[in-house]
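Example 9 (inverse folding). The structure is encoded as follows.
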């Protein structure tokens, strides 16, 4: 019989993490543990207020599945029982971990996909003044791939300052819905001058129709505009890529199916994350083999990570060891 436990954990951020919607100094995560008494599987999720989630609500939703798990609820049953989101992600990943450990084989083998390899991850620069972001870029200039948080007025100056600070790094921009139909063309031009290679979610998810009418030289990636496969057809003519986050998709099971469906539609893949520990990043590594961009830098932004965690060599992130997950 499977038993379930949940825990809320708080992990301090190294400094402050700022995007267009605000700042924070800690990552608050919910961990689900499922055990058969011999083997334990774990999954971590990050509740996100932008999607109507609270830490307490996600914790309670996970805990409410205890009786169903004891009665035999499986990973394949979750999609019919829980909506896409953080709670389903934690449980789904915990069940993947449990299944892999019970079978004595890696999770990627269970999924029928190649073993993940070390990959370069983005390293995120928080939103700030052009001077602050230029200084942050100089400090991170040795990293090959930077993700730049932008936030509206002053963004052309911000991205120019980042490019001056890190002249050799590849750049990805994430506007977190902060641009408008009136400002997007000027911001796109500034990004083109800076050699940006991808722009995430420039317009609000409920007001992104203008993307279908805008000529651009830089691919645009859906983040807040897409959660799972049900939203793919709504992206037509608006986006060139999608950011797959397990917390949005509701777990690794849906994320793998989403990646396959997106690629069939000609969309490129970015695998991303909320701000959490290595336990949240580990399952997402199984998507790295099909991703044009990997953004799994959550542990690099924390003051400390869980032990054992993922191994990072600079911006090179290595696949998880079984003691962590999978």
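The amino acid assigned to each position is listed next.
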């Amino acid at each position: 019989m499977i038993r379930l436990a949940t825990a809320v954990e708080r992990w301090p951020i190294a400094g402050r993490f700022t995007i267009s919607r605000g700042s924070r100094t800690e990552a608050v995560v919910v961990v689900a543990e499922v055990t058969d008494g011999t083997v334990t599987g774990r999954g971590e999720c990050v509740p996100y207020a932008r999607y109507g989630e609270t830490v307490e609500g996600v914790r309670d939703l996970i805990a409410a599945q205890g009786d169903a798990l004891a009665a035999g609820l499986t990973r394949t049953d979750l999609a019919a029982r829980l909506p896409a989101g953080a709670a389903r992600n934690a449980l789904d990943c915990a069940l993947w971990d449990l299944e892999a450990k019970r079978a004595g084989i890696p999770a990627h083998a269970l999924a029928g996909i190649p073993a993940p390899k070390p990959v370069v991850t983005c390293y995120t620069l928080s939103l700030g003044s052009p001077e602050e972001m230029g200084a942050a870029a100089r400090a991170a200039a040795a990293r090959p791939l930077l993700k730049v948080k932008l936030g509206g007025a002053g963004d052309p100056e911000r991205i120019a300052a980042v490019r001056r600070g890190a002249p050799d790094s590849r750049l990805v921009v994430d506007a977190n819905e902060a641009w408008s139909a009136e400002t997007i063309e000027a911001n796109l031009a500034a990004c083109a001058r800076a050699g940006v290679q991808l722009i995430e979610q420039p317009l609000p998810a409920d007001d992104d129709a203008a993307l279908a009418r805008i000529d651009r030289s830089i691919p645009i990636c859906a983040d807040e505009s897409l959660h799972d496969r049900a939203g793919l057809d709504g992206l037509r003519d608006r986006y060139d890529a999608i950011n797959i986050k397990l917390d949005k998709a509701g777990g690794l099971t849906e994320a793998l199916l989403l990646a396959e469906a997106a690629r069939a539609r000609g969309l490129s893949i970015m695998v991303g994350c909320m701000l959490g520990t290595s336990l949240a990043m580990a399952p997402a590594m199984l998507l790295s083999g099909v991703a044009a961009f990997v953004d799994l830098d959550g542990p690099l932004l924390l003051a400390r990570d869980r032990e054992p965690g993922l191994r990072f060599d600079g911006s090179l992130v290595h696949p998880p060891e079984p003691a962590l997950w999978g």
